[in-house]
Amino acid sequence: AQSVTQLGSHVSVSEGALVLLRCNYSSSVPPYLFWYVQYPNQGLQLLLKYTSAATLVKGINDFEAEFKKSETSFHLTKPSAHMSDAAEYFCAVTGEDTGRRALTFGSGTRLQVQP
Amino acid sequence: ETGVTQSPTHLIKTRGQQVTLRCSSQSGHNTVSWYQQALGQGPQFIFQYYREEENGRGNFPPRFSGLQFPNYSSELNVNALELDDSALYLCASSLGDMNTEAFFGQGTRLTVV
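Structure tokens for the assembled complex are given below, as produced in the milestone run.
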């Protein structure tokens, strides 16, 4: 079965600082990986996705993530945090090992951005 | 292109009652997935419908059931509500391929008292 582990339920950075949110996955088949953002009382918005093309994936709002198969990781980064980046971030994986195409989510990381 | 819409946005029910949540998928999308997101947790997969057929189910009891209609909209029904069913219920639509984006609705906040 697939699983996702997000290290750090809360991350706090200063405005302008590097953002690094960690995600490790487990999958018995080549995975598709996603990062979603959720603002309070809202649904999920896709930031970026990895689908076995380039290992460095660029997303919206200057976010990017690098797929590292040897480390089973898909960490999310942003060079310079903005106040508007404060939200909950979820890493997710999907694949066909369970015969379905649903997303398995991590438990989320809440990003705080300090002025 | 319309997005994914869910109704109602908020709902309060009493333990033991039944509830129906609705989802209109994005135009052209044939797959709808439902997720339960408890407070402070990541979404958990309930089930998925593809062209009106259930296409996979998560670890939820049979009192969670669903439907998908010919226009690809969907319903989630929960019978015999329990306090632990209180959560944000999210609907996502997609084209059914694993590497295509799933578009999420704003969710329905269900409170069971």
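Residues 36 and 104 of chain B are 12 Å apart (CA to CA). DSSP finds no helices and eleven strands in chain B. Further analysis is deferred to the final report.
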